[in-house]
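Exercise 7. Given the encoded structure of a 204-residue chain, write a plausible sequence.
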């Protein structure tokens, strides 16, 4: 029987959401051709194939998508969320469109989920429903209680810092955090201004 459940358990603590069956898109038939002999070798001793996405009529919960988007936005400053790039784009198994090449890793406690960035396309365009495990993980994730990548803040450009500041203000975060980011933005602005002044010749 075909497996359509989007979750793949790698081990007790590591899960992959939206890792679909390998193969390639056929432009003539407009269908995804599976490599039947290609197995999921990430899982030890088990020849499990990745699932096949099955579109649904019913839309995926907006609450879930909004929360997941919010979680992804914290990637700039949340120690427990990371985005990794891979070579080459992934292609949608249902419509064949190019579907991004990055992967999110979400950690909470000792559980880690990885999810391709292109998963949003499946949720939104094809009504692929999240696994119960991932749905619960996302909905329970406490966005107010995150570990900050504070050492990274100084290296971010002002536009990203402004984005983060707005995010925290919307979240009604701790005043200390808001003040810290505001200070960094002011510091960066001043540095830019000083750089701009260099090279200007003053005439008397
Ligand atoms: Zn598609």
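Solution.
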């Amino acid at each position: 029987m075909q497996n359509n459940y989007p979750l793949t358990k790698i081990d007790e603590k590591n899960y992959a959401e939206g890792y679909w069956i390998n193969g390639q898109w056929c432009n003539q038939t407009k269908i995804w051709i599976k490599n039947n002999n290609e197995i999921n070798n990430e899982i030890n001793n088990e020849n499990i194939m990745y699932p096949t996405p099955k579109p649904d009529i019913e839309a995926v919960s907006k609450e879930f998508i909004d929360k997941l988007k919010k979680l992804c936005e914290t990637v700039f400053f949340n120690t427990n969320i990371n985005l990794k790039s891979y070579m080459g784009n992934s292609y949608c198994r249902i419509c064949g469109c190019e579907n991004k090449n990055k992967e999110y890793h979400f950690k909470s406690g000792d559980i880690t989920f990885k999810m391709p960035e292109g998963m949003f396309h499946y949720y939104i365009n094809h009504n692929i429903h999240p696994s119960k495990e991932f749905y619960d993980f996302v909905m329970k994730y406490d966005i107010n209680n995150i570990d900050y990548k504070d050492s990274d803040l100084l290296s971010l450009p002002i536009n990203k810092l402004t984005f983060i500041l707005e995010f925290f203000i919307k979240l009604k975060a701790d005043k200390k955090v808001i003040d810290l980011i505001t200070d960094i933005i002011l510091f960066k602005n001043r540095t830019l201004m000083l750089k701009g002044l260099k090279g200007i010749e003053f005439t008397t």
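Remark. The pocket of zinc ion is lined by residues 92, 94-95, 97, 121, 125-126 (CB under 6 Å). Students should compare their own answers with the one above.
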